[in-house]
Write a structure and sequence with these properties.
single chain, Rossmann fold, 10-stranded mixed sheet, 4-stranded parallel sheet, 31% helix, binds iron/sulfur cluster, DUF362 domain-containing protein, DUF362
Length: 459
């Protein structure tokens, strides 16, 4: 923006950001900090499947959190007033142990809570979330316990860990939303004076990556009668997450990038050591920078693209001030997630022709989990027989192909396609049939795997 003849200062969170002595005002760019964590000693064990908490590691992460926050916003006083209730919203996506690397690192939880407690005048610091996705995936209380986040939050000095799913929801009309216009949102999230968004740096089968924007999935219930999360994951997930983000923007986003997840995330990927903290006030910019560090163009990520093109934040790296370390100096190209289950595993045939991503990616997630569970696929097929997974409209199916096989039929929509009778015939010829209702039946990524395991264990 240029205004002739004016000399001015541009401020950023109370600090003088730059002095323009020429004839233009430079609008302040959103700031995103990228700070290195001194390599935690416990990483090697953690990445090999055994989480260990070492006090110095927590302190190393806390030091990086402090530097990242201060570089990005100056001080917590710019967002937290005396007496405020602060909610830290981590990514507690699943009821899973820390070694899954599918949830925020407990050391980062402890570091962030402790930093906020010691460096703000908050009345209370809360940590709250609701594990995502289907009703089979878990409740908040055991999820907080199993992930060791609860223990970490209290070690850091949290006043309370909030199990969102034990609280009321509030109907919210989302102003400006394109698709996801009506949400039911957990009350503690709306009641907090300040919200700190604490996602993890991970890839995601349906969302390509999951960072700050996708982390809002936890503010809506996973088994509410109106199926909020199920519907959000049907298709247009990125637009829906951008819409949901409008409920309330975070005051600060801190990405746990100590150990990320690449490959078949968000739950079946592999850990990748990054030793970084990425932070900023504009979640969209933070996500754009974090995605770039992971080797993605922000425009490849549906949620970031939608939020950015709608003007909810900046995604053009040229218009973001990256402070601390440059994106190029810390970038690692994360292995990309593959969401297509067709042809992945011999003997596990997927028939999906008029089928949307809501079923596709969750079947892929389930089959990946089954394949990496240590199962001997050859023995499984010899003993249990072949598997066929069907979803959506399948005009080209030959019902005879399913004869004497274990058939799993996913979702609700297959019944409204003209091919429904062929699916019914296929089911009648099958050795066993399991139905997974819902749209999207997101829980199948866990349930289909569990049912295949049961089949494998059956005498
Ligand atoms: S049931 Fe049909 S519409 Fe729903 S997610 Fe599956 S394929 Fe898509």
């Amino acid at each position: 923006m240029i205004i002739a003849g004016i000399q001015c200062y541009v401020h950023n969170y109370g600090q003088i950001y730059g002095k323009c002595t020429n004839k233009e005002i430079i609008m302040s760019k959103p700031k995103v900090s990228v700070v290195k964590v001194a390599p935690p000693e416990g990483n090697a064990s953690f990445m090999n499947g055994k989480y260990v908490r070492i006090e110095e590691d927590v302190q190393k992460i806390k030091k990086a959190v402090a530097e990242a926050v201060e570089l990005a916003i100056g001080s917590l006083d710019t967002i937290i007033k005396e007496g405020d209730v602060v909610l830290i919203k981590p990514n507690l996506a699943f009821q899973a142990p820390p070694e899954s690397h599918a949830v925020v690192d407990p050391r980062t939880i402890e570091a962030v809570v402790s930093y906020v407690k010691e460096n703000s005048k908050a009345k209370k610091v809360l940590v709250g979330d609701n594990p995502s996705l289907g009703m089979h995936v878990g409740r908040a209380k055991p999820a907080f316990k199993d992930s060791k986040m609860e223990e970490a939050a209290y070690l850091g000095g949290a006043d309370e860990v909030i199990y969102f799913d034990e609280h009321d929801v509030v109907p919210v009309e989302i102003e400006g939303a394109k698709i996801f216009k009506h949400a039911t949102v957990f009350k503690p999230f709306l009641d907090a004076d300040v919200v700190i968004n604490l996602p993890k740096m991970k890839v995601h089968l349906a969302g390509t990556v999951t960072l700050g924007l996708k982390n809002w999935n936890g503010i809506i219930p996973n088994c509410h009668p109106d199926g909020q999360q199920q519907g959000a994951h049907r298709i247009e997930l990125g637009q829906k997450m951008a819409d949901l983000y409008r409920v309330r923007h975070a005051d600060l986003t801190i990405v746990d990038s100590v150990i990320g997840m690449e490959g078949q995330g968000p739950h079946a990927g592999t850990p990748i050591e990054m030793n970084l903290i990425v932070a900023g006030a504009d979640t969209v910019s933070v996500d754009a920078v974090a995605a770039s560090i992971m080797g993605f163009d922000p425009m490849e990520i549906p949620a970031i693209r939608c939020a950015g093109t709608e003007g909810q934040g900046e995604i053009d790296l040229a218009k973001i001030e990256v402070v601390g370390n440059s994106v190029e100096s810390v970038m690692k190209h994360f292995k990309r997630p593959g969401g297509d289950p067709i042809g992945m595993y011999a003997g596990l045939t997927c028939i999906m022709q008029q089928t949307c991503g809501g079923c596709h990616v969750n079947v892929r997630g389930a089959l990946d989990s089954f394949a990496i569970s240590g199962i001997d696929m050859k023995k499984f097929l010899e003993k249990s027989g072949e598997v066929v997974v069907i979803a959506g409209g399948v005009p080209d199916i030959d019902p005879q192909f399913c004869a004497d096989k274990n058939v799993f039929i996913c979702g609700d929509c297959w019944e409204i396609f003209p091919s429904a009778d062929k699916v019914r015939e296929a089911a009648s010829l099958a050795k066993s049939v399991t139905y997974y209702p819902g749209c999207a039946p997101v829980y199948i990524f866990a349930q289909l795997n569990a049912d295949l395991q049961k089949l494998a264990a059956a005498k």
